[in-house]
Amino acid sequence: MASLALQLCAFAALTVLASAIPISKVPMNGTVMVTSLMMGGQKSPAPSPPCTAMDLGGGCPVLQAAEDSVSVSYSFPAAVVKPGSYVSLTACYSATSSYDRAWRKPNPNDFTKSKDCPYKFATKLPVPSGNATWHVPEKIPDSTIFIRAWLWNQQPDGTFKQANFGRTKTYLEIKKINDIPTSMKGAVIACCLFSPIMVAAIMCYEKYVKKNI
Ligand SMILES: *[C@@H]1O[C@H](CO)[C@@H](O)[C@H](O)[C@H]1NC(C)=O
Ligand SMILES: *[C@@H]1O[C@H](CO)[C@@H](O)[C@H](O)[C@H]1NC(C)=O
């Protein structure tokens, strides 16, 4: 009985270990390049040489959240592409921008649980190469980012697995949208104060007035 329990335990431990894939075990054969940037309505070329500054204010091109965009091209060597494969693209926080923030932490021991690439902006893209544009979303904090491409290969059981990747050498800086204007804050506070009264009024109306119409 005890040995059966032990065997089950070992089996469970092995399955957990087997399903966790460290990023160092995933080959990196992809190339991802910034082809152009749209900043303030103006098209700019990619930083050349690539900007390696991960700090805010480090001199990388600054993209305004909700306004600007970055276009990238990706490609994977034919040898790593399988029939039915596709590519997905994500924007990822730099090590500096994810440092000390559990909710953005990369997980080097199991990349499927990594939280450093929350901005998936394109998927089911063609192999082995293509282009896509990331419109910087509204809800993103001040940060430095890079773009990662994942190659998804179809498995014998029909599911897809991240089999290979590539990333931009360059970092880009993201400037979050301005804080809510003071007048808006006032409106929000007013709403919060008055909404219980509004709810009471609506309930009152529903209960007494509507009934008698
Ligand atoms: C892919 O990259 C790995 C290292 O990550 C290398 O060993 C391998 O030869 C590369 N394969 C191809 C097809 O380029
Ligand atoms: C991607 O864009 C580049 C430059 O903008 C272009 O030269 C290339 O042909 C495009 N590739 C694909 C697969 O569309």
UniProtKB/TrEMBL annotation:
InterPro entries: Transptr_NO3_Nar2 (IPR016605)
Transmembrane segments: 186-205
Keywords: Membrane, Signal, Transmembrane, Transmembrane helix
Signal peptide range in chain numbering: 1-20
Cited Pfam families: NAR2
Coiled-coil positions: none
Protein's name in the database: G7035 protein
Organism: Coccomyxa viridis
